[in-house]
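Bumping with the actual sequence this time:
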Amino acid sequence: MTTEFTPLTALGGGALIGAAAALYWLFNGRIAGISGILSRLFSPIGDGENMQRVCFVLGLIAAPLALKAAAGTSVPIAIAASSPVLAIAGLLTGIGTVVGNGCTSGHGVCGVARLSRRSLAATLTFMAAAIITVFIVRHI
């Protein structure tokens, strides 16, 4: 399976993600770390910020639907893995976000932008793991 690289859409998407993360930090004083927002959404300890989290998650769901409505078509998605492989991958990703105390959005987008050494180390670690995984899956 090959993936077509489109630099302009990648640049636009990256700019939108960066702007959204900056606006979230500006207006809420919090990092837009999706794993943290989602995990705290289901936390039994109430801190009065659940509505903010619900709106954030609803925005994640609504964005592709809005794109489909505006463009008249959806982005094609091809998943080549089986359900058990996806479940294992999701479980490992969840464990990684707990062990690493954050995810790609929290560390990779927000933390690196703040010049956090911990986030830079985390981002380099998960990028290296991703590169090795793709190499193994595609070439070994």
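The tokens above came from a reply further down the thread. The helical segments are 7-28, 34-41, 50-71, 83-99, 104-113, 117-139.
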